[in-house]
Amino acid sequence: MDKKIEEIKRLLEGCSVPQRKLIFMELRKEFSIHPIEEKLKTQAEIILSAINKDASGLTYRMLRGVIAEAAFEIEVISTLSEWRNVTPEGDFPFDYVLSNGIQGVSVQVKLQRSKNLNPMTANQASRKFSKELFVVETQKTRGGIDIATKEDTRPYRFNEFDILAVSMQPSTGKWMSFMYTVGNWLIPQEGHPKKMYKFQPVSPIPNNDWTDNFETCVKWLNQNLEKKIKF
């Protein structure tokens, strides 16, 4: 069998790109690319075409956010030898809970904001922010009104998650690229000190407020420093 495979590989190397594509299409009739094709009873090509039609819309933006969450699990959590994923099932204001056997740390994952498919600078979100920084939107995808307080439920509140992990893919082109800060260091809403401002400036490089190392951010968290990120 191995000899047959090696022979097929040799023959494929001698084929043109159109010829290899034809062979691929023949194999696609027999093999699916992902289990989601069976769940949705359609082909991956149709799913991707549907997403691409909304490349400037909400579906595409939400998909990129979901990819950022998955990238954090695959590219970050899997590389942390002392931490394991203990995220509970349910709807929470965080995406992951990691434990090292001593403490649990909740993490909210967000994607660096873009504008017209280009990285958005912080001063484009608010004039009070530096143009040297990027920006992330820290509010829930869906809004609502609290029946008891009549307040908007879309903003995050302080202490709802420990660490903010920002995927910097729009500016770096790499889904494994993240910047981290302590949740309670984020900027509050004016007039609402218990709520986070919906836009937060993000440094593209490590500094005293942002780090590209998860465990460094945990150390900051454990220092219990009372401060706010600079903008």
Question: In words, what does this structure look like?
Answer:
- There is one protein chain.
- With 231 residues, the chain is an alpha+beta fold.
- Helices cover 32% and strands 19% of the residues.
- It is built from 8 helices and 11 strands.
- The protein has helices at 2-13, 17-28, 36-40, 44-52, 58-76, 122-125, 169-172, 214-223; strands at 84-85, 96-99, 104-111, 114-115, 118-119, 134-137, 163-167, 178-182, 188-189, 192-196, 199-202.
- A 5-stranded mixed beta sheet has the order 1-2-3-7-8.
- Strand 9 (188-189) and strand 10 form a beta hairpin.
- The protein is elongated, with a radius of gyration of 22 Å.
- The mean pLDDT is 92.
State the assembly state of the protein chains.
single chain
Major sheet details? 5 strands, mixed
Number of helices: 8
Low-confidence stretches: none
Strand content: 15-25%
Computed over alpha carbons, the radius of gyration is 22 Å
Q: Would you list the SSEs in sequence order as H and E?
A: HHHHHEEEEEHEEHEEEEH
The CA-CA distance between the termini, in Å, is 62 Å
Helix % is: 25-40%
Count of strand segments: 11
**Average residue-wise pLDDT:** 92
Any idea what the shape is? elongated
Biggest β-sheet: strands ordered side by side in the sheet:
1-2-3-7-8
Q: How does the helix and strand content classify structurally? A: alpha+beta
